[in-house]
Write a structure and sequence with these properties.
Length: 223
């Protein structure tokens, strides 16, 4: 904890606080510390228990994701209130957990919007990597009915799921684009130059275009 305190940078904290994160540690330096510590599950649990954001981020870099019990993961997601901790927890721990599918089903309809957003993030992972058994048309039905009025965190996660269905599954692409166009969620979201808009129709079309360009590149390079 003393070493983490030494890494604190007020300028980084000021930037992070604008995004709802309460830490001021350079993440590259945090990763370097984690690399030195290597995997230490007991230390990771103790760091998480401090309730300190920087300590929790470090915990997720040195833990063994598969070592956490199902109920432990559930409690951790409910405790993770800052965006960066929540994001790392879902991506670095929950997605690697043997309990991820059970938690995905439990969380997706949870009344806590932060927990629900974790459920939708896991669904998006399955849409891309393991769509077998998913009712994609049914997911689009839910997104169409609920996304417009959803709180910010699950709305963002549902929008990501909508975009990935359109990107990865051509048979559902037209409907995914249509839903995005009608609901207009994140249509006016400010996007930095060179970045893709999170507005689903633009996101889908851009990623499909890139995939097409990558597929066509080898034949084009031979001419």
């Amino acid at each position: 904890m003393a070493e983490l305190a030494e890494l604190e940078d007020p300028k980084i904290r000021a930037v992070n606080e604008k995004h709802g994160d309460d830490h001021g540690v350079n993440l590259s330096k945090l990763r370097a510390l984690a690399k030195r510590l290597k995997t230490q599950q007991e230390l990771a649990s103790r760091l998480w228990a401090t309730n300190d954001t920087a300590a929790r981020l470090l915990a997720m870099l040195i833990c063994r994701p598969k070592a956490f019990k199902r109920d432990e993961v559930d409690v951790m997601v409910r405790e993770a209130r800052t965006p960066k901790v929540h994001d790392w927890l879902v991506n670095y721990v929950v997605k690697k957990s043997p309990h991820s599918e059970e938690l995905r089903l439990a969380w997706s309809a949870d009344p806590d919007p932060v927990v629900a957003s974790a459920g939708w993030a896991l669904t998006t992972e399955r849409v891309t990597k393991k769509p077998e058994g998913l009712d994609l048309a049914g997911l689009l039905d839910v997104i169409e009915a609920q996304m417009k009025g959803a709180p910010d965190r699950p709305q963002w996660a549902m929008n990501h799921c909508l975009a990935q269905i359109g990107i990865d599954h051509a048979e559902h692409r037209a409907r995914a684009i249509d839903i995005g166009e009608r609901l207009e969620v994140l249509k006016d979201y400010p996007t930095s130059p060179g970045c893709t808009s999170p507005f689903a129709p633009i996101w889908i079309n851009e990623m499909v275009r890139r995939q097409h360009d990558e597929t066509a590149a080898p034949s084009g390079s031979r001419r």
